[in-house]
Amino acid sequence: MCLAVPARLIAVNDAIGTVELTGATRDCSLLLVPEAKVGDWLLVHAGFAVQIVDEEEAQKTLEAFKELEELEEAYFAGKAEHS
Amino acid sequence: MKKLTLQEKQNTADTLLKRINALHEPGETVRLMEVCGTHTVSIFREGLRQLLPSGIELVSGPGCPVCVTDQTYMDKALAYAEREDTIIATFGDMLKVPGSYSSLSEAQTKGAHIHVIYTPLEVIELSKKHPEKKIVFLAIGFETTIAVICATVKAVHEAGLKNVFFLVSHKLVPPALRALLDRQEGHIDGFILPGHVSVIIGEEPYGFLPEEYGIPSCIAGFDGLEILSAIANILEQRKTGNIVVGNTYHSVVMQKGNPVAQAMMKEVYDICDDAWRGIGIIPNSGLALKDKYAAYDAERALPIELEKPSLDPKGCQCGRVLQGLIKPSECPLFGKSCTADHPVGACMVSVEGSCAAWYKYGYSSGGSTWED
Amino acid sequence: MERVRLVHGNGGRFSHELTERFILKYFTNDLLAPLHDGAQFPVTAGRMAFSTDSYVVQPAFFPGGNIGKLAVCGTVNDLAMNGAVPQYLSCGLILEEGLAFEELDEILRTMAEMAKAANIQIVTGDTKVVKKGEVDKIYINTAGIGMIPDGIDIGPHRVKAGMDIILSGAIGDHSIAVMGQRFGLDLSDSLKTDCAPLNKMVHAVLDKVGSQVALLRDPTRGGLGTVLKEIADQSQVGIKVEETAIPVHDEVQSVCDILGYDPLYLANEGKVVLVVEPEITDQVLQVLHGFEEGKEAVLIGKTLDKNIGKVGLQTAIGGVRLVDLLGEDQVPRIC
After folding, report:
1. Chain B window 41-70: which residues touch C at a Cβ cutoff of 8 Å?
2. Which residues form the PurM-like C-terminal domain (chain C) (predicted)?
């Protein structure tokens, strides 16, 4: 119900940040994420950053997906060996 | 941030689907409600339904702010739009929503000043550009949008603007879920919880789902894989009996949400009962501006009397659709008098409305079936 | 700064001045030179295509082009989609009182440049001036005619099941370039309209394997999604396309993400969808790749003998999404 996209904070001017998306930059209010700093990834909804993306967690999610895949491969490889 | 390659995506989807199949007992029907309209759209756009085992049914919920906005609210917005001295500022979503007698886009063709904005902060520029006009902002939305509107109310206050007014109809998600469960009309086996609402409120407000109702749930992101992994999470809770509020969107959903936003909401709004379209009054599910901000409350600062009573469209089953009690195609108006081009109910208007999604990705594309 | 006045449209001395200073500065050819009430030219036997379009884009100037570029390329491309070799173009200008001469000059200069690139002659035209506020700066109508070479027969009746669907490049660039300025987005310089005359590229394909090309469509307003659904309906076939095969530039995708737009329904002004016999797909791609406008050309799908009238988009994770015509215009939304 709420569209939001991740974008990198590239400049801060008081409570207004400039965020960079591929191909476009735009201003974005930092009122809801006062601790955001340049270089952070922010989740942006309707012109406001609503959260700082936890890059480590994002990375873990990706890795969990990849591990899932490897486990599965190992599982099926194991099956193939036994059959 | 890194992304998965296409191949990795396909492999992960395969793996998740295998896991879902393994967790699902053949012959068992599991009804999962995706609360959020953005999830509804993703599910259609990724073609998820036909990938799932046939016993897993996905039911769309009430998470479309435009759809649940009450008819009286639209009529009030239209009454403001008719005023010569008023500019309506609104998200694009609201343009086509039918009130009892007209819609904003219809009013616009008759000369009403309606300004579509991307961010609520644009009301500040509008106010400065048109000091002689009153700017009425249609403040709708769930917690995610509420947070940004709160910040806007404060910014307007701090800027000392006297010609900006908020017509408020915010809705809160957790009380709505409780109301759905209390009505006990439809059977729901689990909730796919809205990712971006949860960014603001965190995991805790959903605690009553496992604790009081013993119902599994999982907070999900919005791409196909994230939705599949939430479904797997819910099925796993069912299988193990360890019922919790799952979260597969850790990158942005913290256990405590966004405390700054929550504090701001408490500072600007009081919680109140509120009317949901087609559903009725849900206790503690709405917000009203605190007295401190009454000067910005359109209803208090610019009182308006509706000349004619608000009427819900005859025969429209939006309310039952929003509660997951019927599928859009089971409404007698669907595809007949109610179509995407000539919508009767709000659920057909919003891009995220379940009727609109069923219509666009099913009905008007030539039927919902695809032969492989 | 000099500006267009209402008298520039009254047919008298001021009109002559405008014609000489601007129109004849850029549009010069033997057929236009007599400045008669119309152009006269000989015709050859065969089949001819005739097409017209009106251009009302706002803003009139946008990254990578202006309304003049659209007005020439749009009609040239419509002719090319009929398999015709564009020959002659008319140009009707409706100018708003107050339009700066330098803007008019730039638009006409672009039109001349595009006409040259497309090898078409602007042979007749008309100019009207209307009161301030009655149009936004400038509206242009162009109509064009072209000859269809022998052996070329392009149309929905030729599309059968089992054919390949080729797209000449990435979608959505034009729409995003034109409207991206709104809503506070500062677009990077790499985002430009894709507007270009396609006739040379299209005829390079037709010259080689024209008899096996069934249909050509340019996905302008309504976008690729609408064009595919129209083909499925008109030709009574099913269509399956691979979502991951459809090129979308990262810049376009990210603007779409933030505004909630779907690239399938964004307008393009320099793209063509080709429906061809599968035997020639490789050859067609090879020819397209030889042109700047076609260097990202790719096979995106096939026509089917089932799912008649439907378009199924196979998604990355293996699902199938059904594609409909564009309905209401896309507006930025929160949900």
Report:
1. 44-51, 64-66
2. 160-311
Asked whether the predicted pLDDT for residue A10 surpasses 80, the reply is yes
Same-domain status, C166 and C309: yes
Q: Which of B225, B341, B351 sits opposite C333 (nearest CB)?
A: B351
Angle at C307 between CA C314 and CA C202, to 5 degrees: 70
Contact B196 A1 (CB under 8 A): yes
Inter-residue contact C300 to C242 (CB < 8 Å): yes
Same domain (yes/no): C194, C69: no
With CA atoms as reference, the chain B residue closest to C325 would be B365
Q: How confident is the model at residue B123 (pLDDT cuts 50, 70, 90)?
A: very high
CATH number at B30-306: 3.40.50.11740
Residue C101 shares a structural domain with residue C193: no
Interface partners of B (3+ CB pairs, < 8 Å)? Answer: A, C
On chain B, the residues whose CB falls within 8 A of the CB of C331 are 92-93, 95, 116
The reported pLDDT for the residue numbered A73 is: 58
Nearest CA in chain C to B352: C335
Question: Are residue A48 and residue A14 in the same domain, yes or no?
Answer: yes
Residue A60: domain span: 54-83
**Quick check: is C211 in a domain?**
yes
Asked if the model's pLDDT at residue B365 lies above 60, the reply is: no
Domain boundary among C148, C172, C194: C148
A22 and C CB contact within 8 Å: yes
* Nearest residue in B to C330, CA atom: B92
Structure tokens at B278: 């087609």
Q: Give the pLDDT confidence score for residue C326 in this predicted structure.
A: 87
From chain C, pick out residues whose CB is under 8 angstroms from the CB of B362. 322
Cα separation, C216 vs B19, whole angstroms: 44
Residue of chain A whose alpha carbon sits nearest to that of B61: A1
Nearest in space to A5 (alpha carbons), one of C130, C253, C307 = C253
Asked if residue C55 belongs to a domain, the reply is yes
pLDDT in tens, B179-229: 999 987 778 999 999 999 999 999 999 999 999 999 999 999 999 999 999
B197, A2 in Cβ contact below 8 A? yes
Examine the domain organization and report whether C46 and C110 are in the same domain: yes
Residues C229 and C163 in one domain: yes
Torsion of CA A16, A20, A25, A29, to 10 degrees: -20
| SS3 state of residue C250 | helix
| One domain, residues C47 and C91 | yes
Give the domain-ending residue among C128, C148, C168: C148
